[in-house]
Amino acid sequence: MTEEELARVEDWMRGTVAGYEGPLAAEKFAVGQSNPTYLLRAASGTYVLRRQPPGVLLKSAHAVDREFRVQKALADTAVPVPRMLALCEDEAVLGVKFYIMGHVSGRNIVDPSLPDEVPQTRAALMAEMARVLSAIHDTDLRACGLEDFGAPGNYYARQLARWSKQYHASATEEQAGMDRLIGWLEANLPEDDGQRTLVHGDYRIDNMLFSETGTDCLAVLDWELSTVGHPYVDLAGVIMQWQLPPGAEGRGLAGVDREALGLPSDQKFIEMYCDNRGLKRPEGFGYYVAFSFFRMAAILQGVKKRALDGNAASPEKALKLGVYVPRFAELGWEARDRHG
């Protein structure tokens, strides 16, 4: 953020954010490929600014206004979120939409194998992850004013159409594996079972902040993909992530001895979630995991396209992520029958 941009943000905050007192300083977080995010320091406290990236944006992508709305609606619920302070839709300030939220000081965990923890703590953190996901899906949409936050009808049919369109709009070369996976997903759409809940859209441990000294979740972050839809998209997203290689890049649990570490198996995590919500274990869960791999591949393709167009927050990292598109398509194909 340039000094001129920071000055405009400060002028806007002075007239919009209650109790704000300058001067203002900004520091960009290393995370946040999609929507650049900054830590703001001022005399009145610390804040977080989350903005759309510059340049031409795909329709419905980078919807920071939706992020702001859903988190504000969840303020008094069992779902932990940061405090929303102000939304700016006046593009004269930064050239894009952005919002300001309170800064939550917590522990961000990148590696789901939790290498620095003991088995008991690992088990407690995973139980908390299942509990918070259940709380998201048990949110009373009417009480929160979120009944219209997603379109009616078959969620997976809509999502498949949306992400197929966005994938093709950002494609930079032919991907036979993606075409094959999209065709299978279209031919095997599950029937609409009537479940309609709030969904996060990118639920994983690195989008959560935990207590510095305990296992309580203090905030769920990155609501860009949130909507009202089918809850299994979040549950399958967790399972999808765990099929990836361990470490800072894959952030998965492939090949990890989970039992020895105190981590739940895929089946156990699904059971924990279902027990929290009073549900039976879902049938045909492989479809949902395969879809999750497809959607993530489409997202990564969009990240790659922004890098090639010069609009990525971190071009080098974005191009590196884009390399994984065919691998995600392959893993999606393999997941069809793996999870029942």
UniProtKB/TrEMBL annotation:
It comes from Sagittula salina. It comes from the Bacteria. Transmembrane segments: none annotated. SUPFAM superfamilies: Protein kinase-like (PK-like). This is Phosphotransferase family protein. Gene3D superfamilies: 3.90.1200.10, Phosphorylase Kinase, domain 1 (3.30.200.20). Residues 27-249 form the Aminoglycoside phosphotransferase domain. Pfam families: APH (PF01636).
